[in-house]
Write a structure and sequence with these properties.
Largest interface: A-B, 50 and 50 residues
Distance between the termini of chain A: 58 Å
Helix content of chain A: 40-55%
Oligomer: homodimer
Strand content of chain A: 5-15%
Number of helices of chain A: 14
Order of helices and strands of chain A: HHHEHEEHEHEHEHEHEHEHHEHHEE
Largest sheet of chain A: 9 strands, mixed
Number of strands of chain A: 12
Radius of gyration of chain A: 22 Å
Chain lengths: 334, 334
């Protein structure tokens, strides 16, 4: 059976298929299918096809119980990239600033350490994880839930192009397949399948990221969940994961340990002015707005503004809606 | 050997003793010790003594490997209170608003369900846990790290008095013993020892609450840690606990389950006006200040203020420094 014919037939019939269906319809389709012409057309469009039966198909993905017939791919990287140590980072589409900051930090630090960062190109956590990996000059793979020729969501077309420059965009769906809600859980098994570890950053109850985590757990892969406040709906799913077998992620080093990668020692803390250091210590207790900081630390508006700018430039504090939060918890040296 | 003489001798020599020391000094002290007069003096001062060897000594506490010689107590409750199902709630002294809200909610809900809430009368998490239990009209026990006649910290004298009205203040230290840093880890073993489960709400790295949790784990008791943001120093210790054997606490019901107590179904969500409902949904994604809320939800100042007041009165949102946060994450019904 031609796996490419199967993928093309699935696209033709708008269905999800990983094994050849019985019956005359597929048999007829396969008889008429011109594989060489199809491949030539893919090639003209800068697309590649990696069938499941090829030895080069990623070992991690072929191992799952419902591996796709193959993967379509676009991007500058060799397909061998899909066989390297990889971590999936997934989570809520409408994430919080906290989730955005953490996803980006993890994408950056894990890619910098040499892991391939796999995610789903979605808004929110997925996008931030991809962006973090790109910032680090690292490699990242986006797995689509639609045809390989589409960028979904459209708002992430530019991001998909940047991912393609050094990494890969992949899909089990042939060109022309429209995005549809029912394809996303199927897409999630590929995200989990390509990675040896999956990190859930923020997840509401009963969300797609939890499906990815469940699939990873079922396949015996390592699953990390990032703890969040129990008063936040965006952490209900991820905190619940902590109760059902996921490991609490407290820093990128926790993931690297799983891969046997020695984390680099953290960069020396930036040399901060006295007001900036006091503000940072305060924000590490809890995020705050400028007014509350000025009051608590008895700083005048000018000194406060200067110190906050200093902290943002040093990359240790982020701001959103006039509200400042630390980008990492400093730990005591061991 | 008189356990009371031992406790009095420890106070006299400013030492920590759980078994009679060899040597002449204690022997002489014990020969001269007038137990009857000592007990009469305690009684005059409204204090009681419960020696370890008495059958009424709490079973949970006698079971630990270094049980105290006995407990001094003050308060209106029967000493039998110390033998009832109890949960310890401990955490950082300089806690965040998040920690304060969660400690108070847990104190309230666990006491309302009939558990005795045990803590250490300290500032921060301890105090909020005691206050929550009192708000619920429940029973709470404060364990001191100083003599039973002291209130430490002094700022919590009033709280100690309110605890005494229906509950108990206890200490292994006789009247006159001054608070000292080295006594607090010893005090923590009594907090953990009196309880069948210990909850850590917020804990910095290498903090007293982690000592309490370790003692509880060593004694095979259940330990819960409340997840917090990995960018907050106050959650470094509690999140780390999640990696080392503690169970993630996502609601009071998680603790009640351990005790085989059926949690009451949560109260029906309050009937909120449309602006209030929109604000709450927004805050459940992430805490925010009034300005950001007004902008995001396009509410004018008057409507916003009215809706925020409505949310605070309904008990679903708390405010600190102009910053609003939800008091619980609403979940989908199962």
């Amino acid at each position: 059976m031609s796996e490419l014919a199967l993928a093309a037939f699935a696209a033709h019939t708008d269905s999800h298929l990983i094994t050849a269906p019985r019956g005359e319809r597929f048999a007829r389709f396969q008889r008429d299918f011109d594989e060489r012409a199809y491949l030539a057309d893919l090639d003209r469009r800068g697309l590649r096809w990696l069938p499941r039966s090829l030895p080069g198909f990623p070992r991690s993905l072929v191992a799952i119980f419902d591996a796709p017939a193959g993967l379509f791919a676009r991007g500058q990287a060799e397909l061998e990239l899909l066989d390297r140590p990889a971590v999936a980072i997934v989570g809520a589409r409408s994430c919080s600033s906290y989730g955005a900051d953490v996803a980006r930090m993890l994408g950056r630090e894990l890619a910098a350490a040499g892991l391939v960062v796999v995610s789903g190109l979605a808004r929110g956590i997925d996008g931030h994880a991809h962006r973090g990996a790109l910032e680090a000059g690292g490699l990242t793979v986006a797995v689509l839930g639609c045809g390989i020729d589409r960028n979904y969501p459209a708002a992430h077309s530019e991001l998909a192009n940047r991912i393609s420059e050094h990494g890969l965009v992949v899909s089990e769906y042939a060109p022309g397949v429209e995005p549809a809600p029912w394809r996303f859980p199927a897409r999630n098994r590929i995200i989990a399948g390509l990675a040896q570890a999956t990190v859930v950053v923020e997840a509401r109850e009963r969300s797609g990221a939890l499906i990815t985590a469940d699939l990873a757990l079922e396949e015996g892969r390592e699953v990390f969940a990032v703890p969040g406040e129990i008063t936040a709906t965006l952490s209900v799913g991820s905190n619940r994961l902590l109760r059902s077998g996921a490991t609490a992620l407290t820093s990128a080093a926790d993931v690297l340990e799983t891969f046997g990668i020695e984390p680099e020692s953290p960069p020396a803390p930036p040399d901060l002015s006295d007001p900036a250091a006091r503000i940072l210590a305060r924000l590490e207790v809890e995020p705050a707005g400028a007014d509350a900081l000025a009051r608590a630390l008895e700083l005048d508006a000018g000194d406060l503004a200067a110190a906050l700018t200093e902290l943002e430039l040093a990359g240790v504090v982020s701001e959103r809606d006039g509200f400042f939060r630390p980008l990492a918890a400093r730990r005591m040296s061991p």
